Predict the structure of 6-pyruvoyl tetrahydrobiopterin synthase.
Amino acid sequence: MQTVAREGKLSPAGRVAFLSRTETIAAAHRLNSKSLSDAENKKLFGKCNQSHGHNYTVTVTVRGEINPISGMFMNIYTLQEHMQEAIMKPLDHKNLDQDVAYFADVVSTTENLAVYIWESLQKCLPAGRLYKVKVYESDKNFIVYKGG
Ligand SMILES: Nc1nc2c(c(=O)[nH]1)N=C([C@H](O)[C@H](O)COP(=O)(O)OP(=O)(O)OP(=O)(O)O)CN2
Ligand SMILES: [Zn+2]
């Protein structure tokens, strides 16, 4: 990288790139709202009102301006470390409803799981860095959350 800088072959400034990394978490849960009766929960959530598990696939996308010296805006290993702390450690091989305090009163839908991951990553990433959280609950279903 220093060689590139010495030779003056720097990337033009102001180029924004998007970096994504995917991890998989295995977790158990059930869809159940404390605001509803047992009968209402069964009617609304059907089979998903019973305990079951998923191998969730979580793709996190961050954005930033490419540093002309390093050729990147974030080392992928840095993103890996943040995902370990914010996603893998609290969620992998856990019962979301019982082991994760956030879901004590929040229904553990994939939507809310994406929000949890977004908020956890926001705590360790620089402002404006996080762009998108995509969570696959199964091969067929996924949620995209971009904050807000
Ligand atoms: N909007 C949402 N709807 C549902 C969610 C959710 O998170 N957000 N979650 C569920 C259940 O968790 C359920 O486990 C979904 O899994 P499954 O039925 O296995 O999903 P598939 O569509 O992949 O499987 P099929 O065999 O095709 O049914 C329900 N709804
Ligand atoms: Zn489920």
Notes: Residues 1-5 have pLDDT under 50 and may be disordered. The domain at 2-145 is CATH 3.30.479.10 (Tetrahydropterin Synthase; Chain A). Residues 31, 48, 52, 109-111, 137-138, 140-141 surround LPXRUNBV (ligand 1) (CB under 6 Å). The beta strands are 16-29, 52-65, 94-95, 130-136, 142-145.
